[in-house]
């Protein structure tokens, strides 16, 4: 065990904490056994040093111990939660992707929260789409079982975070906890399409996921700064399995899609994002539809539904054009 003063001194000196040390410190925070000054000092020290992979792993393991689990009996479960913070201003691409992938027959537990640094968080846009985002644990589990799609609202399923929320707000800068959401899916997602806008963050998250029992995950980063599979420039994707990591590069052409810029995918607020998603699911063509198809294709390839992403893009398009994705959203909303 390491105490907070020693830990703060260690990271201030530029030295990394072990996974066990970090886990014990996060346990203390989430149990309400650490004062705000100690929490703030450690989080800022880690931020200044740069969070190490060992620290991400230990913190994620601790958060998983404190979260409320959602039962799932299947073999394959996808999450499309990313780190956020890219500042892209786009509509909620990963949320639309989750709906389309579920419509293609893959169980999805979408983990997310209300907006923090973005114009629209996944919870915000789903609420606009008629989904009860603050449902009980039982209702979330039932949705996953019956619909094959559920929303895991972070504050509801990570109740111990109440002990650190005040400190995080007072610091007003990204901290270790901003990287942990995608690593702590309450339903225990076996597969993840995880976006991040930062090169160093992508590498660290990939290394951490390799130690956190993922079956197969993709950490994607667009050349244009998007924390998604992008349609402009090159998307770098790190494929992670427990004993294997490989870096891939995709362009819009890889998916059989035209290039498109972030400027074509903007949303002013949750209502605007919801309108865009409804239009996509109703069959409206254009850049917004295409980027959802690209991301859904990456997810479908990830879980083994297609041998390549171009074939997977056809499956994603069919899930939209058949009306299955629109119906899937209706089923999710009906689970209130």
Automatic annotation (TrEMBL):
Every Glycosyl transferase family domain range: 76-325
Name recorded for this polypeptide: Anthranilate phosphoribosyltransferase
Keyword Transferase: yes
Keywords attached to this entry: Amino-acid biosynthesis, Aromatic amino acid biosynthesis, Glycosyltransferase, Magnesium, Metal-binding, Transferase, Tryptophan biosynthesis
Family note: In the C-terminal section; belongs to the anthranilate phosphoribosyltransferase family. Belongs to the anthranilate phosphoribosyltransferase family.
GO BP, one annotated term: L-tryptophan biosynthetic process
Organism phylogeny: Bacteria, Pseudomonadati, Planctomycetota, Planctomycetia, Pirellulales
EC number from the UniProt entry: 2.4.2.18
Catalytic activity: N-(5-phospho-beta-D-ribosyl)anthranilate + diphosphate = 5-phospho-alpha-D-ribose 1-diphosphate + anthranilate
Chain residues that bind anthranilate 2: 168
Gene for this chain: trpD
Pathways per UniProt: Amino-acid biosynthesis; L-tryptophan biosynthesis; L-tryptophan from chorismate: step 2/5
Residue positions binding Mg(2+) 1: 94, 228
Positions annotated to bind anthranilate 1: 82, 113
One of the record's GO molecular function terms: magnesium ion binding
Enzyme class at the top of the EC tree: transferase
Binding site for Mg(2+) 2: 227-228
Biological role: Catalyzes the transfer of the phosphoribosyl group of 5-phosphorylribose-1-pyrophosphate (PRPP) to anthranilate to yield N-(5'-phosphoribosyl)-anthranilate (PRA).
């Amino acid at each position: 065990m390491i105490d907070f003063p020693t830990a703060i001194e260690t990271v201030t000196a530029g030295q990394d904490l072990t996974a066990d040390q970090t886990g014990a410190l996060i346990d203390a925070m989430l149990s309400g056994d650490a004062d705000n000054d100690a929490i703030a000092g450690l989080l800022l020290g880690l931020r200044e040093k740069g969070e190490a992979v060992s620290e991400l792993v230990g913190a994620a393991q601790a958060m998983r111990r404190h979260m409320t689990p959602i039962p799932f009996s299947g073999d394959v479960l996808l999450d499309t939660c990313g780190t956020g913070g890219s500042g892209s201003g786009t509509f909620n691409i990963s949320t639309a992707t989750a709906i389309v992938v579920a419509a293609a027959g893959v169980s999805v537990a979408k983990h997310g929260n209300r907006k923090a640094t973005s114009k629209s968080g996944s919870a915000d846009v789903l609420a606009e789409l008629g989904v009860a985002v603050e449902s009980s644990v039982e209702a979330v589990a039932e949705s996953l079982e019956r619909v094959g799609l559920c929303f895991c609202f972070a504050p509801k399923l990570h109740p111990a975070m109440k002990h650190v929320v005040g400190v995080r707000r007072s610091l007003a800068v990204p901290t270790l906890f901003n990287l942990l959401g995608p690593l702590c899916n309450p339903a225990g997602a076996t597969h993840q399409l995880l976006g991040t806008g930062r090169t160093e963050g992508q590498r660290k998250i990939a290394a951490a996921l390799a130690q956190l029992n993922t079956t197969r995950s993709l950490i994607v980063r667009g050349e244009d700064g998007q924390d998604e599979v992008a349609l402009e420039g090159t998307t770098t994707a790190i494929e992670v399995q427990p004993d294997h990591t490989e870096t891939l590069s995709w362009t819009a052409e890889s998916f059989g899609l035209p290039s498109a810029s972030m400027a074509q995918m903007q949303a002013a607020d949750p209502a605007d994002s919801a309108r865009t998603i409804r239009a996509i699911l109703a069959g409206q063509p254009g850049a917004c539809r295409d980027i959802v198809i690209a991301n859904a294709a990456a997810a479908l390839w990830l879980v083994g539904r297609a041998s390549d992403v171009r074939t997977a893009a056809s499956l994603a398009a069919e899930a939209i054009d058949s009306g299955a994705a629109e119906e899937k959203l209706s089923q999710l909303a009906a689970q209130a």
